[in-house]
Amino acid sequence: MINMAAGNGQYQKPKRVLLKLSGEALRGNEDFGFDAKRIFEYAEQIKEVVKLEGVQLAIVVGGGNIFRGNQAKSMGIDRASGDYMGMLATVMNGLALQNALEKVGLYTRLISAIEMPKICEAYIRRRAIRHLEKGRIVIFSAGTGHPYFTTDTAASLRAIEIEADLLLKATRVDGVYSADPEKVPDAVKYNHITFNEVLDKKLNVMDMTAFTLCQENKMPIRVFDLNKYGNLRKAVREEEVGSLVSV
């Protein structure tokens, strides 16, 4: 895990990192689906982290740019079926991201929590770790494989299972704030905050299941804005970017 130096918020560069990338991030400036330019910008940032920093990187992708499970009710679809539809959307996003990463010269493996052998590998923990050790980028799709769980929860679970040093949560804002900075201009940003402080202040970092998993397993979370080029590399180095949530 990250070793915090007393009092200054510095930490040693992690060896293995899991990046949570939302479907909305892949949508970019489009109303629906994919923004190819944005995806290739992410791919270039990921390349810098893997090639220049030597970090083992896994990614969990969301599916909100195509379908969200909570949309199901308004469409007359039961929640479980809607969640499965959302899981399939994450596989589509995983394929799009895999294509971009390989076009910039990276080796990848797309892994799904739902078996579909003609498209991607089934999730096997030891195999996923071995791919990382060989320098491949592992893209986790289909969430946890079960309805009623978010992709944030999938990210927390996979980060713990692969023994990552850090979970990176890419968002539209550059960290954790006392209130929504898009609605409250004078909201205060926290450069470093503990799990207990997040709970006491009732801040929204991840859904409660995902957050509790990280807290119980002492998995640090760095919340940052991936749309600013270079932030991903900063997030895995000793440079301050976004907000760090830890014990």
Any descriptors?
single chain; 247 residues; alpha/beta; Carbamate kinase; nine-stranded mixed sheet; two-stranded antiparallel ribbon; 36% helix; globular; disordered N terminus
Mean pLDDT, all residues: 92
Helices and strands: which structural class?
alpha/beta
Q: How much of the polypeptide forms β-strand, as a percent range?
A: 15-25%
**Number of helical regions:** 8
DSSP strand count: 11
CATH class membership: Alpha Beta
Major sheet strand order: 4-3-5-2-1-6-10-11-9
Tell me the name of the CATH homologous superfamily.
Answer: Acetylglutamate kinase-like
What sequence of helices (H) and strands (E) makes up the elements?
Answer: EHHEHEEHEHEEEEHHEHE
**Rg of Cα set:** 17 Å
Known CATH architecture: 3-Layer(aba) Sandwich
* CATH fold category name: Carbamate kinase
The biggest sheet, with number of strands, parallel, antiparallel or mixed sense and barrel status, is: 9 strands, mixed
Poorly predicted residue ranges: 3-9
Number of domain units = 1
Could you give the distance between the termini?
A: 11 Å
Quick overview of this protein structure:
By secondary structure, the protein is α/β, with parallel strands linked by helices. It is built from 8 helices and 11 strands.
Q: How would you describe the overall organization of this protein?
A:
Strands 4-3-5-2-1-6-10-11-9 form a nine-stranded mixed β-sheet, with helices on both faces. It has a two-stranded antiparallel sheet with strand order 7-8. The chain is an alpha/beta fold and 247 residues long. Mean pLDDT is 92; it is low at 3-9. It has helices at residues 23-27, 36-53, 79-103, 125-133, 151-161, 195-201, 208-216, 231-235, and strands spanning 16-21, 56-61, 108-112, 121-122, 137-141, 166-171, 176-177, 189-190, 192-194, 221-225, 243-246. It starts with 15 loop residues before the first strand and ends with a strand. It is globular and about 50 Å long.
